[in-house]
């Protein structure tokens, strides 16, 4: 991006944080793509909650693989698989949106059967806590 493009990071992030309240609404799901969820997750990320952690998890949401790596409060997200993931989560966008938006807890979503963890469940618990929308 150009310098002017980088200046938009703050306003676009603020709009994305505002939009978190609408995650999971039926109308918004109809116009959604899995990769758009990455922006919502970036907006919901709480660096303070992540400051003491170094971990990486791989996610498969509606068939889209991506990774989330946290290093002492710094967030890195990208499409594709992660070589150093300690856990892999397979779910759908609706379940992930419910967690990120704070509308449902991780335990509740896991009971639905549409949220599968391979590897460290504790890492996934810690990671999802870093993405909870503040109320």
Structural notes for this entry:
- The protein has 135 residues and is an alpha+beta fold.
- It contains 8 helices and 5 strands; from the N terminus they run αααααββββααβα.
- The longest helix has 11 residues.
Give the secondary structure arrangement, pairings included:
Blueprint: H1 3-7, H2 9-19, H3 26-30, H4 36-44, H5 47-50, E1 54-61, E2 64-71, E3 74-79, E4 87-91, H6 93-100, H7 106-111, E5 115-119, H8 121-129
Parallel strand pairs: 1-4
Antiparallel strand pairs: 1-2, 2-3, 4-5
Q: What is the mean predicted local confidence, pLDDT? A: 84
The description of the largest β-sheet is:
5 strands, mixed
Percent of residues in beta strands? 15-25%
Assign a percent range to the helix content: 40-55%
Please provide a brief summary of the model.
The chain has helices at residues 3-7, 9-19, 26-30, 36-44, 47-50, 93-100, 106-111, 121-129, and strands at 54-61, 64-71, 74-79, 87-91, 115-119.
Can you tag this structure with a few keywords?
globular, 135 residues, alpha+beta
């Amino acid at each position: 991006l150009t310098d002017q493009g980088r200046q938009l990071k703050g306003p676009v992030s603020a709009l994305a944080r505002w939009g978190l309240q609408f995650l999971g609404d039926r109308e918004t799901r109809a116009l959604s793509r899995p990769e758009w969820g990455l922006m919502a997750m970036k907006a919901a990320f709480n660096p303070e909650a992540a400051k003491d952690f170094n971990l990486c998890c791989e996610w498969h949401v509606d068939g889209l693989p991506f990774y989330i790596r946290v290093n002492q409060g710094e967030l890195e997200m990208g499409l594709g698989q992660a070589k150093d993931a300690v856990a892999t989560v397979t779910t759908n966008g609706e379940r992930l949106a419910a967690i990120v938006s704070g509308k449902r807890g991780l335990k509740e979503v896991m009971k639905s059967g549409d949220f599968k963890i391979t590897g460290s469940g504790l890492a996934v618990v810690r990671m999802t806590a870093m993405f909870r929308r503040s109320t």
